[in-house]
Amino acid sequence: MKDFISSIEFIFGCYCLLLLIVYVLLFRMSSISIRKNLRTRNSRSVQTLMESEIAPGVSIVAPAYNESVTIVNNVRSLMTLFYSRYEVVIVNDGSKDDTLEKLIHEFDLVQIDFLVDYLVPCQEIKAIYKSRDISHKRLTVIDKVNGGSKADAVNAGINVAAFPYILNTDVDCVLANDTLVQLMEAVLDSKERVIAVGATLRMSNSSYVDAGMLVEAALPKAILARFQEMEYIRSYLLGKMGWNYLNCIPNVSGGLGLFDKEILIAAGGYDSHSLGEDMEMVTRMCMVMCDNHQKYTIKYIPQTLCWTEGPDSLKMLTRQRIRWARGLMQIMRAHRKAFFNPKYRQFGLIVFPYNAIFEFFAPIMEILGIVFYIYLIATNGINWPMAILLLIFVYMFSVFLTSFSILLDNYVYKYYKRRQDIIRLCLTAFIEPFVYHPIIVYSSIKGYIQELFGKKHAWGDMKRKGTLSPEPSIETKK
Amino acid sequence: MLNIFNDIIHVVRTFFEGRGWPLLVTVALILSVLFWTCCLIGIAIFYYRDYRYRICYSRIYPILRDFIYEQVLVKNNVSHFPIDKLGLNLEKRLEVKVVRDILHEFIRTIGGEKGRSMRNLFNELGYDKEAQYEIRHAAKHMAPIVRSLNDLALMKVVVQENVLDKLLASPKIEIRVAAFQYLLQVQGEQAFDRVFSQLEGINELHAVDIYQTIVLTDYFGTYSFSQWLDESKTFAANKLLMDLMVYYQELEASQLWKLIVANKDMNTIIKAVNSLGKLLARESEDQLRDLYDQHQSLHLRIEILKAIGRLGQGKSLDFLANIFENSELPVKLRKHAYRSLITQRPYSTMYLRRINDNTDAMTDRLIRYITNPMVHYI
User: Fold this and answer.
1) B74 and B130 fall within a common domain
2) Which among A326, A378, B250, B369 could bridge A447 via Cys, Cβ 3.0 to 4.6 Å?
3) Same domain, yes or no: B209 and B227
């Protein structure tokens, strides 16, 4: 029995030590990556690419489902991005409200005859609308039969898109004006083929948004949204920017991602049955490139280019995280052949194993660890001074990593102008491990169990707050 | 050797069997606290720096704005600005940075003669000396050198040849590209040979930078960009030259065909075909049709169809009509074949009428889509 307990201790010890090493490496790699990005950023003017007539074209694909409250302002915001060659493709995914009617009325749309080549699978496209107003010539609205998932709607947009790059975003996301310039700079500033580029996302919950444009960023007031804000900052700036250094980015977020259309189509488009469609798509794109023996790069940039409304109720948050956990499990199962497969190069040897061991198994290991801890306490087999010391270290290390992400965020750009926002964010790092983290672990385990027993997933509706943005600070008003 | 190794293992084992683990964890804990404190200090410093910048900006902006309105826009002063009136302390690094940023904003928005006066003001505020110093002494830091070169180009200040040579030989491509841009802005056409002979290592983003620099200068001449086309060069370098050929309408079809025949890089071939169309290389139409049959790449075929459409000579009407009428071909290819037929009017009028008369419902929808004036991108 003693040997058995020692073996379990050894397994947990190795797992934690490996995770610690990975985090220390990410800490170093993300710093290098961000410094390199800022050096390039500071050495050139955004205007050059913005004004250039030879810049590659981009099709923005934004699915909309029951977005009546915000649709007009958000489409206007997409139409005013700074870039010379782009189109906006809005996909009305069978909305039950008056989303389509509002678009038709506001942008003077008329139905046109069309023939679509269904290069990637999607539900039937019922109609395509174009604007009679020449100032809205960039806009195309697709009306399609509801496919039950965002993936299906994006696929419809890909089939209609005309340009070689696709920017996949949600219609309720608020994009920075120079989003396309910054993402395309990352594509062009590379010797290898860039198949996808992502950027940092964060919460718009308490920010001041006027007519689909972000006027002033503010830390979310609701504690759940604030936790998510902190999690996003850590995940993007520490995680993804760290992996960016090794060209090992596991996922480009569905909220904002620029993709090479040719590879997107070659990989078969988004899988409408997947619950983690963005990560699944990137996984297949990487595998297609490796199968064809082609070199590729996936890039991330540290600047926040997209502001999205995050779930601010516990029910919505757990539902979202259950979906993510199920999506991860589906990917692990569907693409298991990539696990430590040298054919898939860095994807098979680093990205996939890391996702399997430290993302997929992490909640399971945590639950098992707690059970083991309880057992040791019950059998009086615990070394209390050492256990407490370890707990304090793990806690402090987690607070340090979060604080470091906030430091990186301030290094990239000072999004929060108010001092109290930064102080509150730093303080949130102290309570996150006790309040927010257990919710995430619980949701993940629940997601795995649901997936294991094949329970049908309900997407649920998230109510948009629309124009209920808070007032800007006095400084912004001035 | 083996003994030493055994000794080390013994020491490590005794360390961890004794008080080793607690000691290690304590050290890790202390380090975590230390790093966390450093993070907090870092956040505070960043916040304070940003706060100071914003305060300084809000103080200087109205002063400088009023000064520019009065001296440059109203009084039409060209040089010898009364900068003492500004009351700025340009020995403070922060003020120097803020004034530079504000002036850049104005220079970007004010063009023509007034823009020249703005650049003189920039010069008279002493930024030329600072920039000259930076390019000589900030050898290891890319950002200040690039920024200084941009400032010097803006002020049209001449840099010594030996300094420029050093920058052009820099291992950092960003510095080399900044030096190219400086040369192009200050010397214009005279710098072309020097720049185009050193394009190795540039990527597409640098190509865009160089292209924009050239097209925004006053140059309009007959320089032969095509002489630098070479199959051994990267796609980015060749693309830059072809874009310039198109912009300045330098029709040199033989050079482009050399590139098409000798190159294995599909992107370069596609770009060359695109350039042939935009340059209206009329004698290339037969060769383009031959090229269509030689390659299976959809992108290349589309580009060939577009090029034929641009040439608009009415020599490939059967070829285009056959492609459009072949319903087994990808829709995208058929769309471009039809659009090219439209651009060949009046030669293609008969063909278009024949197609319209013998069309089925699906093809009719396709035609209506392509010909719809509201559809700009197909």
Assistant:
1) yes
2) A326
3) no
